[in-house]
């Protein structure tokens, strides 16, 4: 990645984890270029839609039928509408970040403009806490249409927790939706549901589906997906073929090459390397590494002389200065090399002593060249 001033960065954001193979992946670019000369959008669905759907069904355990959208929010909104149609219930329980639309964002602190009546139909539950979910379900017996959660985030869930969520959804007649926007085609070819071996009723996919081209999907159990015959889920650009061609090339590459294994191994080196550095500098009181090797997190806590947000600002400032683009996570792509990992770890080796000075020795003011970040919106 190069900025407008020509500074070069190794990118660990990767379009908020959408670019999983790397920029200008040769297979994806060739597929898109070939499609470009034939046309982009037609009035009828293109064969590619069926081919990508078949590939998703072959890869994702819960997928028996598939519908496509453009943004992740299309897929999550579609899944919720289908779940409501299937159950005849209105209430939705949410466990993570699921997009910008009213049904979800109304239940967060960023709910400006959302009618209270809409917000009242969505409740948050704390993830990785089966008892808390059970309590919400018991308080709302026979009212819950769907439980939607990201199967994994900054904190990896236990398999037992996900199994219990599965059991609770079934016992309460609620549709279980795994929002695998990030974990899909990242934790495993079949997503977190394959990795943890827990199968939801519906799955929403997007980011890793087409290597950055705008495409999302809702898929799942045939009897539930059949509601799509009557549920309205329609987009003028929904059948756009460049993204479908990109998706087919991406999924075939995932099936053919050790994409996930490579991301796992390089991401694992980052996690271990950073943990070793935290131990080396005695920084474990304010810095912790968590998550999955393909999507790991640097979690900061308040030090005695700087807040976690001040420390995060310093961390990002110093990463950018060393040619690393990160927002505090490592969103791995197949294009990251061992050399990129070395460069990142070398940057952390220089930055950790600075963070320690800021956290505990009052050096923040002299180290920080900008205003500290302010907390806006925390969803995971
Ligand atoms: C888990 C999850 N669900 C849904 C979304 C919404 O996707 P989009 O921004 O493409 O609408 C995101 C986006 O970050 C996400 O991470």
How helix-rich are the residues, as a percent range?
Answer: 40-55%
Strand arrangement, largest sheet? 2-8-7-6-5-3-4
Low-confidence stretches: none
Bound molecules: pyridoxal-5'-phosphate
In whole angstroms, the N-to-C terminal distance is: 27 Å
**Total number of beta strands:** 12
Described by the principal axes of the CA atoms, the overall outline is: globular
Query: What radius of gyration results from the CA coordinates?
Result: 22 Å
Largest sheet: 7 strands, mixed
Total helices: the number is 15
Secondary-structure class: alpha/beta
Strand content: 5-15%
Oligomer: single chain
Give, in order, the helices and strands.
Answer: EHHHEHEHHEHEHEHEEHHHEEHEEHH
- Overall average pLDDT: 97
Describe what you observe in this structure.
This protein has 380 residues and is α/β, with parallel strands linked by helices. It has 15 helices and twelve strands. It has helices spanning 14-17, 26-36, 47-59, 72-87, 102-105, 116-119, 130-139, 159-171, 191-196, 222-225, 241-256, 259-280, 308-321, 338-360, 364-367, and strands at 10-11, 65-69, 91-94, 122-124, 144-149, 175-179, 202-205, 216-220, 287-292, 295-300, 324-325, 329-331. It has a seven-stranded mixed β-sheet, sandwiched between helices. It has a three-stranded antiparallel β-sheet with strand order 9-10-12. It has a two-stranded parallel sheet with strand order 1-11. A hairpin with a 2-residue loop joins strand 9 (287-292) and strand 10. The chain is globular. The protein binds pyridoxal-5'-phosphate. Pyridoxal-5'-phosphate binds at residues 16, 71-73, 76, 96-99, 150, 179, 181-182, 206.
